[in-house]
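Subject: Protein entry, chain in single-letter code together with its fold tokens

Category: Structural biology, sequence-to-fold work with a learned token vocabulary.

Notation: Tokens come from a learned vocabulary of local backbone shapes, not from coordinates.

Start of record: The labelled sequence and token lines come straight after this line.
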Amino acid sequence: MCGIAGFNWKDNAAIEEMAGAMRHRGPDDSGTYLDDNVSLGHTRLSILDLSPKGHQPMYFKNLAIVFNGEIYNFQEIRKELESFGYGFTSGTDTEVILAAYHRWGDKCVEKFNGMWAFCIYDRDKQTLFISRDRFGIKPVYYYLDDRRFIFASELKAIRKHHIDLETDPAGVNFFFYQKYIGGDLTIYKNCRKLRPAHSILFDLNTKKLTISKHYDLEAEIAKRQDIAVDDRLEMVEEILSDAVLKRLIADVPVGSFLSGGLDSSLISAIIAKNKKDFDTFSIGFKDESYNELEFSKIVAEHIKTAHHYEYMDVNEEVMQQIISAMDEPFGDSSVFPTYLLSKITRQKVTVSLSGDAGDEVFGGYDTYRAYKLAKFIPAPVAGLSRLLVNMIPPSDKKVTLGFKMKRFLRDFDAGCNRRHLNWMATFTESSRKDLLNNSFIPDEQLIPCGSEDSLLSVQLNDIHNYLAEDILKKIDLASMQVSLEARVPYLDYRLVPLVLSLPDKYKIRFLTTKWFLKRIADKYLPRQIVHRTKRGFTVPVSSWIRNSDLIKEFLTGRRYYEGGPVNYERTQQLFNEHISRKRDNARELWLIFVYNHWRCKNR
């Protein structure tokens, strides 16, 4: 992985400062390119061709590039380009991207299998072309006013310009609704994200910025539906295996996260079947309701990998470190164990494969099961059940049946996509209105929901929102803090539309999630791993709030609320209810803590 940055004027000190702010993304090398109209910066984590030939910015004829990511099929593209007469001096995918852009222009991204965020400067045309991969594995942020265009892998690099960045109420509302900031929003009004599957063309002369979409997932799903189902099922298994093996390409050591859950276990098993002396990594927690280390040990023994693990706990020092690294509020607390896992993984390898996105693609979430279940429950029964379920007392344990039942019934009468979003939501619309007062923005304005009622529509909702700006952002944030490259095989662009095109029964069958993926996994893994209850990678936030002086300080100190949108009195009510165990407000309080901490550090 790497960090990229740039802007539309010449300033060596400024571009070096931007690159320096992202040194954790690329500790092995750094470089800049400047002319009268542009400054580009790069920090490099060396993965392919570790020699100086891989240095960036890299040049080809009239083009210069800064690139963050990996193109796994670059060798095939290189051979095609060589047939057209192109020559290459390095063993990098970066050089292939440059030549591909020279040959095919912005259509080159359609050939790439990988993850990317890159900027290509065309000196002749005086343009900057910036692209983000199909599913948003790698981030791109940008700032634009009437004369300045600035982009970077992280907002902290843009902030080095000391520009006036005003908090965006839409970003704040999105955060308190879904615990992340989605769409093209950021926490700042005049900064935006480049959406997944989109590209920017910025004209340096006219200062005109044009955004275009280079990949349409829905259209790709429709194309696959013309293929016979049996053929699709066979293709899924073949492509999944190939996707995993393609992501082993590197000139540095490669390993795999292994939580003991289905997704990471299957990826590790596929690797182990094809590669000897392979390293896998996991962490354990002292709280047994959160600890899954024993399952990862079972898998490692079964597939015979060199398994590395540690028992670790999230302490206040780790909290401070990760929250301080956040460019904007991010409320997914699983970023902490992901960071700890990345930390022990980086001790042995530079690249690790991850099981993320298996749930979104193959149908693994409880909300998908709830979608199916809701079809069979009459509304009056749901209403009566809601009254009874709300009497269940709160618990500090991992996500309980009582919690799931409350979430399932809370918005039972809403449309399927809104019901799904509200299940994932931390604050309900009414509670968020109480919390944010005059800054409140309704749910529908943040994430509009269509009327389509299907499991596929719910999965697409997740892929375009939750996956892109929560799950993938978490992986990037946690792994990049320790200079570890994380790769996501389940997001191979050949695999995703193929699986999503399958009939529902291959995803959810008799309330069994990821039905077809489990059929594949049965060939690789013990039955107790394949068919065990999903637990997720979560942490004991509820007890943290009761026991952490750091969290208490940011929740109860009135000074952290001054001039901000969060209602102090409402927060104290939530805090007191939680401390007295009258109600489990852990998820709501956690977001307020994260927001207050971020705001204190970024004023």
